[in-house]
Design brief:
The chain is α/β, with parallel strands linked by helices and about 375 residues long. The protein contains 10 helices and 14 strands. The protein has 2 domains: about 260 residues, Rossmann fold (3-Layer(aba) Sandwich), CATH 3.40.50.1820; about 100 residues, Rna Polymerase Sigma Factor, Chain: A (Orthogonal Bundle), CATH 1.10.1740. Helix 1 packs across helix 2, helix 3 packs antiparallel against helix 4 and helix 4 packs across helix 6.
């Protein structure tokens, strides 16, 4: 086996679907495309495939670089690659940009063939169960019937959970990281405030800002700044920024004075340069609507009785957006449904973003569990 390294240079691929899909909202999308990347080699039995489901602002570029001069690698490059926990020497790994995204898959900023203009406000809302159906169709195109594992953090973990209910026979293992069985009222409230920042931006134009050659940048900046606060922990922010002043003195004004203000504005500006506001609205609404127990009289245990997968559930002590208590709800429901589940609660100062970090205990748990997955493939 090679040492721990990068998957190297990668190239996105596009899957086109001409079979209509009936979405949960009742809207039928006649055709669409999904952009995805793959790393590693699919074995002859097609039994070593792992699907990575992305979180709210994620996309298909999970690992590697597009060119040598790229400053940053894919968003989970520390987890995916040769010798890494999701080892591409052993697994065939798929990352995709979900339907409704803004990184190549069909979404609000895509051209509607019927009008020759961007879908904009006419693009339908999409639920997690719709994403899972489109992911299953992609797997069909690739000839993969059953995944060795489906892995996701945050909103990605919700997709992994949904897979085990919608397509139970197609998932051997589900790794649900920093996630929840549904949002709390507080989380829905945060999402609504973020959406209102976008919806009330004068440049939003009812979602059809493309025709006005503008973007609701101010609203998107504020939405990202608010969201980013919830992804970090109080201790983590205090440790990194404290009450540091950029100039060392109070300036008695409303411009940037504290280092944390500078950081948040930088994150907001950067995000507004590459992310689509309509996609942000759509993704946060998918989060709000996620509730797999809803069709089982609110009984999560009953919903998870459908699953045949084995589970790893991971939470982080400083994550107050999706607290460990929410992960324990999933674990309890799985145990009550007599499913096989392992649970790890990781000590971390990184808040919700911890699932993207390189905390050694977290990396070691992921490695150990995926070693087990690989051993089952080779048994």
């Amino acid at each position: 086996m090679q040492g721990s390294g990068s998957v190297g240079l990668v190239t996105p691929q596009t899957a086109v679907f001409d079979t209509p899909i009936a979405l949960s909202s009742g809207v039928v999308l006649p055709h669409y495309q999904l952009v995805y990347e793959t790393y590693g080699t699919l074995n002859a039995e097609k039994s070593n495939a792992i699907l990575i489901c992305h979180a709210l602002s994620g996309h298909h570029h999970v690992a590697g670089r597009y060119k040598e001069t790229d400053k940053a690698a894919g968003w989970w490059d520390n987890m995916v690659g040769p010798g890494k926990p999701i080892d591409t020497n052993r697994f065939f790994v798929i990352g995709l940009n979900n339907l409704g995204g803004c990184h190549g898959s069909t979404g609000p900023s895509s051209i509607d063939p019927a009008t020759g203009k961007p879908y904009g406000s006419s693009f339908p809302l999409v639920l997690v169960r719709d994403w899972v159906e489109t992911q299953a169709r992609l797997a069909d195109q690739l000839g993969i019937y059953r995944f060795a594992a489906i892995i996701g953090g945050s909103l990605g973990g919700m997709q992994a959970l949904r897979w085990t209910i919608s397509y139970p026979e197609r998932v051997r293992h589900a790794l649900v990281i920093a996630s929840a069985p549904k949002l709390t009222a507080q989380n829905i409230a945060f999402n609504d405030v973020a959406r209102q920042a976008i919806l009330t931006d004068p440049d939003f134009h009812g979602g059809d800002y493309y025709a006005h050659n503008t973007v609701p940048r101010r609203g998107l900046r504020l939405a990202r700044m608010l969201g980013h606060i919830t992804y970090l922990s109080d201790d983590g922010m205090g440790e990194k920024f404290g009450r540091l002043l950029r100039s060392g003195e109070y300036l008695y004004g409303y411009d940037v004075e504290f280092e944390i203000e500078s950081y948040l504005r930088y994150q907001g500006d950067k995000f507004s340069d590459y992310f689509d506001a309509n996609t942000y609205l759509l993704m946060t609404k998918a989060l709000d609507y996620f509730d797999p127990a809803r069709h089982y009289d609110g009984d999560l245990t009953e919903a998870l009785r459908q699953a045949v997968a084995k589970f790893l559930v991971v939470s982080f002590t400083s994550d107050w957006r999706f607290s460990p208590a929410r992960s324990r709800e999933i674990v309890k429901a799985l145990l009550d449904a007599r499913k096989e589940v392992s649970y790890a609660e990781i000590e971390s100062r990184h808040g919700h973003d911890a699932f993207l970090m390189e905390d050694a205990p977290y990396i070691n748990i992921m490695r150990a569990y995926l070693n087990r997955v690989a051993a089952e493939i080779n048994a």
